[in-house]
Amino acid sequence: DGYVGDCDMSAQPIGLTVFETKIMDKKYCLVLKVESKEATLLHEKLKSMGATFDYDEYTPHITLLYTDDKSTLVFDASESPNFAISLDEICVDGLKTEINIKTKEA
């Protein structure tokens, strides 16, 4: 029921931070904030098409992990990875209230 398509987006890491979540049973998520003009434009386009969001202000980011224990999120906020990020596919779907992670057994 979602949309998957090609895209041409780039991003530059800014730094790690913690966001409080408003969904699922996890209270916090570790994110890599990025600078991306394309991501910001995509967010605005999705809003104009009727998409809704939990937060008033958009911060381009990549979610790395969800947790309910903030003390497990130990990192040096002053260090930022120094590499370019390229995205070539986008997937837009409805809100998921549950995440199932499947692992490959060795």
Please characterize this protein's 3D structure.
With 106 residues, this protein is mostly beta strands. It has 1 helix and 4 strands, in the order E-E-H-E-E. It has one helix at 37-48; strands at 3-20, 28-35, 61-67, 85-92. A 4-stranded antiparallel beta sheet has the order 3-2-1-4. A hairpin with a 7-residue loop joins strand 1 (3-20) and strand 2 (28-35). The model has no long low-confidence stretch (mean pLDDT 82).
Descriptive labels:
106 residues
**Largest sheet, strands/sense/barrel:** 4 strands, antiparallel
Q: Tell me the helix content.
A: 10-25%
Give me the strand/helix succession: EEHEE
Characterize the overall form. Answer: globular
N-to-C span = 33 Å
> Structural class, from secondary structure content?
mainly beta
Separate helix tally: 1
Strand order of the largest sheet: 3-2-1-4
Low-confidence residue ranges: none
Number of strands: 4
On the 0-100 scale, what is the average pLDDT? 82
- Could you tell me the strand content as a percent range? 35-45%
Q: What is Rg?
A: 15 Å
SSE arrangement:
Elements: E1 3-20, E2 28-35, H1 37-48, E3 61-67, E4 85-92
Antiparallel strand pairs: 1-2, 1-4, 2-3
